[in-house]
Amino acid sequence: MTYSEQMLDHIEEGTMDQAQKDFAWALRKDDDDTLYSLAEELYALGLTNQAQRTYLKLLDRYPQEDELRTALAEIAIDNGDNDEALSYLFQIQPSSPAYLQSLLVQADLYQTEEQFEITEAKLNEAYRMAPDEPAVLFALAEYYYLIGKFQEAIPFYFALIKAGHLEFAKVDIAGRLGTAYAQLGKFDQALGYLNQVAPGYQTSDIRFQTGLTQLALHQLKEAIITFKELAEDDGQYASVYPALAQAYAEEHHYAQALTTLQEGLAVDQYNEHLYAQAAEMASHVGDTELMATYLKRAHELDPDNQTITLQYSNFLLHQGQDDENLALLAPLVDENDDPQVEWNLAQSYLHKEDFDGAKQAFEAAAPALSDNPTFLRQLIEFYQEMGMRPQLREAVEHYLAIDPADSELQELLEQLDEDY
């Protein structure tokens, strides 16, 4: 048995002191092929320092072997030393058999630095050199996939399948194609590929994507089964709960949707979106008290989320809690860009008979909501009640330009004309 083999045995047994002694002897006594295999094994085990020492020993003996430089560059990248990695890679010339691999390693390095133009240039150079090389096809496919260019990724995944690679580097290609098509909104194609993913690659992410695709295709019963099985098998997969609740809600099973979201909150108790969604389901089952609790908690968790704030505001308005609504929305006025905030404020001011506040809020919202019939109706009623005839006439005319068939407002305009 070689010292390298003895070292690996001791690593497996957990006797690291003896493994270190065997490593020292291996560097002195084992032949070069054995040392190369040892370096690969050590790198695979995550023992990068020992792997690096072994590769450096071999590079000292074989300075012409550029494969050793690419291996050392990969270790340097793992260690966060990109400059050292590039120093190895730049020593490899285009005439070297290792040049193609060096391009792939460079692409990986530049991608970690988010230098995507250089990454793409390196990968395209590799593709021009070896357009049929599976490692190149996979690298290009993964690059486009990971930066969200799914349409560009798909042809390279197809090329891998055509070459007989249903999986590569422990990645299921059908799963990648299914997810890519789903991201492009091509759900029929997506589900076809997701259903082909091998059992060993049916990760929680793939199962979740399958459920989302079924949901998008309105295959609600199938989506519910997929999500329920995922929740049973991986209860900590928090994203499954809002998706399962949505499927239940689309089937009008609101009580089950609410229970599902409550289960999700037990897993992810600081997710404001779960609370907001749970509040919506509580409204469907008529539990006003629970709805208030969830909306308040959602707002507390993310007070800057204007969507949640307005959802809470709408609830307060509906419940006639105008003081609470004013306290909620008043701080948003100066930095607000959503006219719904002003509209909701106007309604509460009006309920409180603060007519100056109502007028100011209505008119602040009016430019953005000038084509909203419901808003215009409220504005017309306000102007009518306040006796603001010029403003009333203008608002009525504007409303009738949108809905000329409204006989009630036609009569009001005629009356205004007669009075004038």
From TrEMBL:
TPR repeat residue intervals: 238-271
Superkingdom of the source species: Bacteria
Assigned keywords, A-Z: Repeat, TPR repeat
Any single Pfam family the record assigns to this protein: ARM_TT21
SMART domains hit by this protein: TPR
Entry-linked Gene3D superfamilies: Tetratricopeptide repeat domain
Protein's name in the database: Tetratricopeptide repeat protein
Lineage, opening ranks: Bacteria, Bacillati, Bacillota, Bacilli, Lactobacillales
